[in-house]
Each structure stands twice: as structure tokens, then as C-alpha cells.
């Protein structure tokens, strides 16, 4: 709880971009490049949402309550207990209360920014794909009149942004997912996420967990409480080389989170087969863990466009 309190109470400006005042030319150029990359993602993803995904998103998610809308005249078949006797007495005609389903809900993007997210074998890194996904989901939420918040985690809680519904807030979310540097650790764990979801979010929310899910702990145990309190959607990101090792001879593979390295002979068919078998078993176990908890999944690979994946997911939610 101490970690949650520290992150929740941290005072920071809710700016989409850092200021370039009082910095060197090199630093100012770096800031300009950051701004350009964030805006490029936002513009391209905004077009995708507007043209392809907005209507699908709006129809798939609802809040968890009902709101009073207005009074209307009693109609045959209405529940007698719904009659408002005060209004009925004033109008001289039976009236009932009319309720509508609560539309607005809070959407949270929980993004794993541990060291393994920097990996990209032949194109964008997993973290860059996460930024694109975060942009689409954040813009979809705002277009659907929902608030969207952000949780960044490694094996610690790195950043918490309360939900808002502005374009400027979406820009900041993209920037943070793409460029936020962990303060103390490159490790990964679901423990800090579990803590903030179970104890930090008071209202039931829709939570997208973006990660490669390369955790040492049991995923089903780590997310059990959070899945009971919130509507969780797991978004596992996989680089194709992590399950199908290319034949490039002897290479040194380094773990970005621990720093440990291992020399591997990728020209060995047996080595490649063992890796593929291990990856297949891991993916099966991960899928089974999500199914046990009733968590929807949206698997993404870094070498494929994300639009078809999002279409299938939104349609499946119905």
C-alpha cells in the first residue's frame, strides 16, 4: 500500500509533452523528435478509430449500473412497483420512473514497461506496438465518452494517471507508454499491478493489461483478486522470434531484465525445435490461466497489423 500511496500522491504536471525551455539544442531536438513520434502515432491511430473502430467499441462496453432519466406515463406491462406515487398524485395520471443503463465507465490501460518490452527482432519493439495499441484503446474510449487512465508497472508501480477523457490526455498516455523510463528496475512482476487494481481502484473498471506476460509467478494467482473486482482483458504481445528462433548461427542471447547471457547455436534444428515446443507449452498454459479466471484475451504479434486483431476482439465481446 505504501507504493500505491507514493504513486497516487506524486505531483506531476498533466502535460502531453515536456517543456524544451532552458535546455541544449541536442535536448530540444530530442524533445521535438519525441513530440513528432507521439503525434504521428496519435494521428494515424485517430484515423483508424474514427473510420473503423469507433462504433464497434461503443457497442461493446457498458457501465455497471443504471441512471434515473425521467418520469413517463404508466403503460400496460410496466412494473407496478415502479410507479412514483408523488408524481402520480400531482399529475392525476399514473407515472413511473424511467431508468437507462449507465453508459460511462472508466477504462484503464495497464502497461508492462519492463526490459523485455524493448525487444524487436525485425520491426517495431513490443513497447512500440503497446504504444500503438494504447493509442487506439485510449482514443476509442474517449470517442465513446469514457474516461481512460494509465498504469505503468515493472516489478514496481511506476506511474498512475487518473482517468480523463481529453485528447491531450490521450497524447500523454501515448508519450508515457513509449518513453517512460523505469526509476529503479527493469524487472517484471504482476504483484504491483495486482495491488493497485485490488486496492487502488474503487470503482469497477475495464482494464486492458498489455504485456508479454513473461513473469515468474503464476498468472492465475496474481490476477485472481483483480479479475473478481474488474473486467480484465489480457493483451499478450509476442515477437515471432521468441517462438520461432531464426537460423543465424551462434549468437549470444541476453536477458534485458537480469543482464544474464547465454550462447546458443541457432543452426541446430534440435535447439530451434526445443524453443518452439517450450514456447507452445507456455502459451497454452497462459491461455488456460486466463480461461480459468474468465479473462478475455487479445493476443498480438509484433509482425502483424493490429487493426484486424482489434476488429475480431471488439466483435467477439458481443
Structural overview:
- The chain folds into two domains: 66-101, no CATH class; 104-316, von Willebrand factor, type A domain (Rossmann fold).
- The strands form three sheets. Strands 3, 4, 5, 6, 7, 10 and 11 form a seven-stranded mixed beta sheet that branches.
- It contains ten helices and eleven strands.
- It is of the alpha/beta class.
Distance between the termini: 36 Å
Radius of gyration: 23 Å
Count of DSSP H/I helices: 10
Per DSSP, what share of the residues sits in E-state strands of 2 or more residues?
15-25%
Strands, total number? 11
CATH topology of the largest domain: Rossmann fold
Q: Which term fits the overall shape?
A: elongated
- The CATH homologous superfamily name of the largest domain equals von Willebrand factor, type A domain
Residue-averaged pLDDT? 78
CATH class of the largest domain: Alpha Beta
Number of domains: 2
User: Structural class, please?
Assistant: alpha/beta
* CATH-derived architecture of the largest domain: 3-Layer(aba) Sandwich
- The run of helices and strands is HHEHEEHEEHHEHHEEEHEEH
Biggest pleated sheet? 7 strands, mixed
The level of helicity is: 40-55%
List its salient traits.
318 residues, alpha/beta, Rossmann fold, seven-stranded mixed β-sheet, two-stranded antiparallel ribbon, 10 helices, disordered N terminus
Amino acid at each position: 500500500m505504501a507504493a500505491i500511496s507514493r504513486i497516487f500522491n506524486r505531483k506531476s504536471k498533466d502535460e502531453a509533452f515536456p517543456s524544451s525551455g532552458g535546455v541544449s539544442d541536442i535536448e530540444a531536438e530530442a524533445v521535438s523528435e519525441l513530440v513528432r513520434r507521439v503525434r504521428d502515432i496519435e494521428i494515424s491511430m485517430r484515423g483508424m478509430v474514427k473510420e473503423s473502430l469507433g462504433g464497434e467499441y461503443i457497442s461493446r462496453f457498458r457501465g455497471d449500473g443504471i441512471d434515473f432519466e425521467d418520469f413517463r406515463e404508466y403503460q400496460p406491462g410496466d412494473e407496478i412497483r415502479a410507479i412514483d406515487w408523488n408524481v402520480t398524485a400531482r399529475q392525476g395520471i399514473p407515472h413511473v420512473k424511467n431508468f437507462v443503463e449507465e453508459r460511462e465507465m472508466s477504462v484503464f490501460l495497464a502497461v508492462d514497461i519492463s526490459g523485455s518490452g524493448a525487444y524487436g527482432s525485425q520491426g517495431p519493439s513490443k513497447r512500440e506496438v503497446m504504444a500503438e495499441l494504447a493509442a487506439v484503446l485510449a482514443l476509442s474510449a474517449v470517442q465513446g465518452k469514457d474516461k481512460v487512465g494509465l498504469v505503468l508497472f515493472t516489478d514496481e508501480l511506476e506511474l498512475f494517471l487518473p482517468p480523463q477523457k481529453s485528447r491531450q490526455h490521450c497524447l500523454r498516455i501515448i508519450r508515457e507508454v513509449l518513453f517512460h523510463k523505469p526509476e529503479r528496475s527493469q524487472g517484471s512482476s504482476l504483484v504491483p499491478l495486482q495491488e493497485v487494481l485490488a486496492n487502488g481502484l474503487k470503482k469497477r473498471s475495464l482494464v486492458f493489461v498489455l504485456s508479454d506476460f513473461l513473469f515468474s509467478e503464476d498468472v492465475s494467482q496474481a490476477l485472481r483478486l483483480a479479475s473478481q473486482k474488474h473486467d480484465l482483458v489480457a493483451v499478450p504481445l509476442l515477437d515471432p522470434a521468441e517462438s520461432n528462433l531464426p537460423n543465424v548461427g551462434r549468437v549470444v542471447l541476453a536477458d534485458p531484465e537480469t543482464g544474464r547471457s547465454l550462447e546458443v547455436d541457432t543452426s541446430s534444428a534440435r535447439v530451434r525445435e526445443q524453443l518452439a515446443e517450450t514456447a507452445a507449452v507456455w502459451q497454452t498454459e497462459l491461455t488456460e490461466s486466463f480461461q480459468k479466471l474468465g479473462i478475455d484475451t487479445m493476443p498480438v504479434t509484433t509482425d502483424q497489423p493490429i487493426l484486424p486483431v482489434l476488429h475480431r476482439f471488439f466483435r467477439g465481446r458481443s
